[in-house]
């Protein structure tokens, strides 16, 4: 424990920790040196397991705790925060979550140090916490969590031990041991297959003169306090819930594409006048990290069919199943959605209360 007099009561550090590596550990050590107590904000909480987000927030907490000596573990608290793909909302939720925890501990006026590293423009959010003292630290290594995941999921058949051995200099021994044990779990092989599919998909665009930007559409259809969802029939996100949707075609408007994809995947087909009357909003979701396939901008169309009987539907095309799901169930299903589809539903239906 740091025995010097600190000018701060608590240090906060923020990350996804997918997985926890030596760069993260260096930041955490700086945070522990900056104040007697530390709060670690775990980002991308409540996400479905994917090659980008393989570990639950609870598993990431365990990785972090295992990397610390016992006395330091008692000084660290954890706050899971979901992705909102809306920076101002996310900043507000992080701040209020930290302030709420401090108030619970009788520290409503605590002096807060935010400890982190400005590695690139994606880290500029660290400057968004007015009133917190930002302590920028130097980067320890050019190796990052993406490289760890690529080594982990991209190992050659039968060579997982060799891949893990290569990570010894990049991650705490406890993380390497955690990864070895985690590879025995049933979803590891599924994520390896999905990682390989995504690798081939991105590789097929390597010859393009510019990085590709994909345009897609999605249809959020509400009826009688239910929403129409599909279960994906293929990777990426095989088995996950999603709004019906897909890629726009050359000679279609986004509205026309949304109706076509809706019909192809669910066989829901109402009169055009009925659908136009039901259309309540069309919103662009364009966060750079919203899709694992790459830069994908979607136009989500929100249809409200009112309190009528459910139109008949059946799964087809990319959908393995289709169902009308009660809106009240959606929050408990959050970790079973493709990409940002839960957050699209949240935008239109107001599922979460934060911010």
UniProtKB/TrEMBL annotation:
Q: Which UniProt keywords are listed?
A: Nucleotidyltransferase, Transferase
Q: What organism is listed for this UniProt entry?
A: Piscinibacter terrae
Q: What is the lineage of its organism?
A: Bacteria, Pseudomonadati, Pseudomonadota, Betaproteobacteria, Burkholderiales
**InterPro entries from the entry?**
Cyt_trans-like, NUDIX_hydrolase-like_dom_sf, NUDIX_hydrolase_dom, Rossmann-like_a/b/a_fold
Q: What is this protein called?
A: NUDIX domain-containing protein
Q: Which SUPFAM superfamilies match?
A: Nucleotidylyl transferase (SSF52374), Nudix (SSF55811)
Q: Which domain of life is it from?
A: Bacteria
The Swiss-Prot or TrEMBL record annotates one GO molecular function as: nucleotidyltransferase activity
Pinpoint the Nudix hydrolase domain residues: 209-352
Q: Which residues form a coiled coil?
A: none
């Amino acid at each position: 424990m740091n025995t010097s007099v600190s000018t701060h009561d608590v240090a906060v550090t923020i990350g996804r920790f997918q997985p926890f590596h030596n760069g993260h550990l260096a930041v955490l050590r700086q945070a522990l040196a900056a104040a007697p107590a530390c709060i670690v904000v775990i980002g991308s909480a409540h996400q479905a397991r994917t090659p980008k987000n393989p570990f639950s927030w609870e598993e990431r907490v365990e990785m972090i705790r295992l990397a610390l000596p016992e006395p330091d573990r008692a000084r660290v608290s954890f706050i899971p925060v979901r992705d909102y793909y809306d920076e101002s909302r996310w900043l507000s939720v992080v701040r209020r979550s930290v302030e709420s925890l401090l108030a619970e501990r009788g520290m409503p006026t605590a002096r807060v140090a935010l400890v982190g590293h400005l590695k690139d423009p994606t880290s500029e959010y660290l400057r968004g916490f007015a009133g917190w003292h930002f302590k920028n630290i130097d980067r320890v290594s050019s190796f990052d969590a993406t490289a760890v995941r690529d080594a982990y999921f991209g190992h050659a058949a039968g060579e997982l031990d060799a891949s893990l051995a290569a990570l010894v200099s990049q991650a705490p021994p406890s993380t390497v041991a955690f990864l070895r044990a985690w590879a025995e779990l049933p979803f590891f092989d599924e994520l390896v297959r999905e990682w390989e599919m995504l690798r081939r998909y991105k590789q097929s665009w390597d010859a393009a003169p510019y990085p590709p930007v994909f345009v897609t559409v999605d249809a959020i259809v509400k009826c009688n306090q239910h929403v129409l969802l599909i279960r994906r029939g293929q990777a990426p996100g095989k088995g996950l819930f999603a709004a019906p949707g897909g890629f726009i075609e050359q000679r279609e408007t986004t509205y026309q594409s949304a109706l076509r994809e809706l019909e192809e995947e669910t066989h829901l087909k109402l009169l055009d006048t009925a659908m136009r009357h039901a259309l309540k909003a069309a919103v662009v979701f364009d966060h750079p990290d919203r899709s694992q396939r790459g830069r994908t901008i979607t136009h989500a169309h929100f249809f409200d069919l009112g309190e009528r009987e459910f139109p008949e539907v059946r799964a087809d095309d990319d959908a393995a199943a289709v169902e009308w799901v009660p809106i009240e169930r959606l929050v408990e299903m959050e970790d079973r959605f493709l990409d940002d589809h839960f957050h699209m539903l949240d935008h239109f239906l107001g599922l979460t209360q934060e911010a």
